[in-house]
Recover the amino acids of this structure.
């Protein structure tokens, strides 16, 4: 098989759809070669080709930790972190994004303070607007019905203050990932996400560090 990334085949999506219907050890073992050749190997090759530009990434395991999961022993995705971005491959396609995932209370307070403060908040608004124009989605995994205590409901960034975390990303669908040129799209997305990562490092993650 080639030692360079050539995209994801129909077999990869056939595997994900089959696993969704038959998430058990017997089915997985019967289709393990399909998983290795159509899913895991191309994903690892993608990571390897991105490494010279963004550093190496570690591919996640498909097995779930069965101490906390009694049914459905396999994840419905494979993921890695490359260049400060999160890359996930599933039946929907290849998702590339970055952000803060379910931060601890102190980090969430810092995020909200950065959103609410005029200088940093306006900077974030500009970054988000630019990314949306480029086709990125900006969202959260959970949100409040109204801004948290201490923030006015009429705040100009009230919608962002309601977020319990924040992410920015875009999805390359099944047709997009069928060819090797999706590699350029993924690399471009990682680069385009850099202003958002810089904002997080400057106003949230790195604030208060020496």
């Amino acid at each position: 098989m080639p030692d360079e990334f050539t995209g994801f085949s129909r077999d990869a999506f056939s595997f994900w759809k089959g696993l969704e219907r038959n998430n058990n050890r017997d089915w997985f073992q019967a289709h393990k070669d399909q998983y290795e050749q159509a899913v895991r190997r191309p994903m690892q090759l993608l990571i390897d080709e991105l490494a010279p530009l963004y550093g190496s990434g570690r591919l996640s395991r498909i097995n779930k930790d069965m101490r906390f999961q009694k049914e459905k022993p396999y994840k419905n995705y494979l993921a890695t972190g490359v260049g400060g971005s999160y890359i996930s491959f599933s039946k929907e396609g290849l998702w590339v994004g970055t952000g803060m995932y379910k931060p601890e209370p102190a980090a969430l307070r810092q995020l909200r303070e950065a959103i609410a403060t005029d200088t940093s908040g306006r900077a974030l608004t500009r970054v988000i607007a630019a990314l949306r124009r480029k086709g990125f989605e900006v969202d959260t995994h959970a949100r409040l019905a109204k801004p948290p205590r201490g923030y006015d409901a009429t705040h100009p960034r009230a919608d962002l203050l309601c977020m319990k975390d924040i992410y920015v990303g875009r999805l390359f669908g099944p047709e997009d990932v069928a060819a090797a040129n999706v590699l350029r799209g993924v690399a471009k997305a990682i680069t385009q996400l850099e202003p958002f990562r810089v904002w997080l490092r400057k106003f949230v993650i790195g604030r208060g560090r020496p």
Observations:
- The first helix runs from residue 10 to 21.
- The mean pLDDT is 94.
